[in-house]
Design brief:
Largest sheet: 7 strands, mixed
Radius of gyration: 25 Å
Order of helices and strands: EEHEHEHEHHHHEHHHEEEH
Distance between the termini: 47 Å
Number of helices: 11
Helix content: 25-40%
């Protein structure tokens, strides 16, 4: 239309004047444009046990920046090379266990940090993020795990997540269970669920009253133990409050089919990745962790000779253990590339992709065999506004927690420190 329609323009019918609606052609462009929607930030942490094949997974330390040769173990990620960065030099200095690939990965805690204890942990980075990013979602965070944690080189823990008291948070080891948690409607009526929540609150109130009575007159040590117990009670109170808030809201419609029962190995990991995308896509949660299997993955691979996961972790290049380790790296990279594909394919309301607003991390505590320095680390996605498409070699023994601090700040969490951090990674910002 070359000439604008006069603002005083009407439809004439049967002697009646009907005003036209507000339209761009009448000069109301500001009203016609939709309100800008800013997609939320998300974080996904993928943790592995038993490390990688150091000879074929890490890029050459002399090739830094954007122009580096992708090593053999990461070749399946080639189509996404501009959208992830590989970091070398990161270490969890307090981690001294060669078989604990994820126990302190997201916490950076000192196992012996509390006198009189032989094990101590602290809050994981995902839970710091969940306190902020998960405030407006049905699930503050979701945790996928393997049911063979010890055999997969992960160490103590129930998932990658640890709460504010340093206690392990349970994870779900079945894709079918995750699907129903996310998308299946409750079979219990709303009235029954509300009654159950009210009963739980009543029990907690009684426990708190009794705990305060018990606290009078106990020793300092017992008082500290009781305070820790009460912190756990408060966590339950928060969870119940969230359940109350969402009890009457229907769950999101599933954007994928229910996974087949009994999946294992590669297919199970793929199913969990698909569910992670679906959970973020439907805004059911904005924080996800996944403690991945190794034993089940190896059993599903086409190996020339059977190799168990622990023997593979002590691999020798040129032997069956070395072949298994390299194939494991390749399959993990293929699966990770597939996850990136899906994140990029899901569009947000503003036309950007889910990938553009998700901070994705893949790695673990163990470099290779029992070596705990230079933790294997890949960071991807646009959620934390970091430099992507580069190979960065940081100063030796840079705290891994510096990365978590950087990413937390990048997604809008006001954290000043995390674990043993000494500051954000300026080279990554």
């Amino acid at each position: 239309m070359t000439q604008p329609i006069p603002r005083r323009h009407f439809l004439r019918a049967a002697g009646t004047l009907i005003a036209l609606p507000v339209m761009e052609s009448l000069g109301y462009r500001a009203f016609a444009s939709e309100k800008k929607i800013t997609p939320p930030k998300r974080m996904v942490f993928l943790g592995m046990g038993f490390g990688v094949t150091q000879e074929t997974w890490y890029p050459d330390v002399h090739q830094q920046g954007a122009h580096y040769v992708l090593p053999e173990g990461l070749l399946p990620l080639a189509r996404h090379q501009k959208d992830f960065s590989i970091l070398q030099g990161l270490t969890n200095k307090f981690n001294t266990e060669g078989h604990w690939g994820s126990t302190f990965w997201l916490t950076g805690a000192n196992r012996y940090g509390v006198p009189g204890r032989n094990f101590n942990n602290s809050i994981s980075a995902d839970q710091v993020a969940a306190a902020v990013l998960g405030a407006d979602t049905r699930y503050g965070s979701l945790h996928f795990t393997t049911n063979n944690g010890g055999g997969d080189g992960h160490g103590p823990g129930l998932s990658l997540a640890w709460n504010a008291q340093g206690k392990p948070i349970a994870g779900m080891d079945s894709p079918t269970l995750v699907f129903h948690r996310l998308f299946s409607e409750e079979k219990t009526s709303l009235e029954e669920r509300k009654a159950l929540l009210a009963q739980q609150k009543s029990i907690l109130d009684a426990v708190l009253v009794d705990a305060k009575r018990v606290k009078r007159g106990v020793t300092k040590t017992d008082s500290d133990k009781l305070d820790e117990y009460l912190e756990g009670i408060r966590d339950i109170e928060i969870r119940i409050a969230k359940e109350e808030k969402w009890s009457g809201a229907p769950k999101a419609k599933a954007p994928l089919a229910e996974p087949a029962a009994g999946l294992g190995g590669k297919e199970q990991i793929k199913a969990f990745y698909d569910l992670a995308v679906a959970a973020l896509q439907t805004d059911s949660t904005r924080v996800i962790t996944y403690r991945q299997p190794v034993t089940a993955l190896l059993k599903g691979l086409d190996l020339k000779s059977p190799v168990d996961s622990h023997s593979m972790s002590h691999y020798t290049m040129g032997l069956a253990t070395g072949d298994a380790s390299q194939l494991r790296d390749k399959i993990q990279s293929e699966l990770l590339a597939g996850l990136m594909d899906k994140l990029k394919s899901v569009k947000e309301a503003d036309g950007s992709s889910l990938f553009d607003h998700t901070c994705l991390v893949f790695g673990g505590n163990i470099r290779s065999v029992h070596s705990l320095d230079n933790c294997p680390t890949i960071v991807s996605g646009g959620g934390a506004s970091i430099r992507l498409g580069e190979h960065m070699v940081l100063p030796k023994d840079t705290p891994l927690s510096n990365l978590w601090l950087t990413l937390l700040q990048g997604v809008g969490v006001s954290a000043e420190r995390h674990g043993d951090s000494t500051g954000a990674l300026s080279t990554l910002i």
